[in-house]
Amino acid sequence: MERNRTLLLASMALAALTLLFAIISLATSGWGGISIFRPTVRTAPAALGILAVLFIIASLIVTALVVFAKLSSKMSLLPIVMFFLTSLFTMGTLIGFFNGNGTAGYSYNLMATVHVFIVIAGLIAAFASGVLLGGKTGA
After folding, report:
1. Where are the transmembrane segments (predicted)?
2. Of 4, 53, 58, 83, which has the highest C-beta tally within 10 A?
3. pLDDT above 70 covers what percent of the chain?
4. 78-97 and 44-68 are packed helices; what angle lies between their axes, rounded to 10 degrees?
């Protein structure tokens, strides 16, 4: 259980870092020289980015509940699901803003970093769940 807890804490730390990066990415105007919240810009990437931030927060809360509330071993799968959903929204933000000419800007690159770190946090959470369940499938 201690190894599982350590891995989930590492996953939470990485998710907290990605939350910081996501907030900075959305707050800056490095999306090709413009702000993502400007009315002339497509609003879908901004909405997906905000949802990604909310899902990162939800992932942190769910992971903290699994770590500190000592929930059942089946509940250790919830952080994996949350990290996966978060990665879908970060990918949607990237795809929604992609302009095809390679000049997306530093905020776009920061959101790409958020996506990669969320995937890594999800992989760490999946490994932690595998350690906790010990290869049992529940059948």
Report:
1. 48-69, 76-98, 110-133
2. 83
3. 81
4. 160
Query: What number of CA atoms fall less than 13 Å from residue 91's CA on the CB side?
Result: 9
Q: Give the CA radius of gyration of the chain.
A: 16
Is the overall model pTM greater than 0.90, yes or no?
no
Per residue in 20-34, pLDDT (tens digit) is 999 998 888 777 666
Distances in Å between the Cα of 71 and the Cα atoms of 9, 57, 107, 120, 128 are 15, 19, 37, 23, 14
Domains of the chain: 2-133 (1.20.140)
